[in-house]
Write a structure and sequence with these properties.
Layout lengths: L1 E6 L1 H8 L5 E4 L9 E6 L5 E14 L1 H8 L7 H7 L6 E16 L14 E4 L4
Parallel strand pairs: 1-3
Antiparallel strand pairs: 1-6, 2-5, 3-4, 4-5
């Protein structure tokens, strides 16, 4: 199972550059997911590549920050603002990633594409 995950452009680029080794989320995927396609949200609005999930770690925001602050490519202020009033946070550990030579316009793949608030399940995209 794959997902198309909406990620802010600065974080999408950091993942594909190998700087960001975890993607933080407020919720976990309902299904088992192996491949995550990176949809770089506005202003890019393109699929830039994908990453393979190593595993997903669930813990308190405080513990996840201590564990992954050096590989998360996010400031402490932004991290804790994102998880404000959350008891559980998720860190998707990135095993490997691939950047497409040419970003893909999702409207060429999905008939009635609207950017996902968080993610949508999908088939292979290449």
């Amino acid at each position: 199972m794959n997902v198309l995950l909406s990620i802010k452009p600065k974080y999408a680029r950091a993942i594909l550059a190998g700087e960001k080794k975890v993607e933080f989320r407020k919720s976990r995927f309902a299904k088992e997911v192996e491949k995550v396609y990176i949809y770089s949200s506005s202003p890019d609005q393109k699929i830039l590549g994908y990453f393979i999930i190593e595993n997903i770690v669930a813990d308190t925001p405080e513990k996840l920050w201590k564990k992954f602050k050096n590989v998360g490519s996010i400031t402490k202020a932004d991290f804790f603002e994102y998880f404000l009033n959350k008891d559980v946070a998720y860190a998707i550990k990135i095993k490997s990633c691939k950047k497409y030579k040419s970003p893909i316009n999702p409207k060429e793949i999905f008939k009635k594409f609207t950017a996902p608030q968080s993610y949508i399940y999908c088939g292979d995209i290449s």
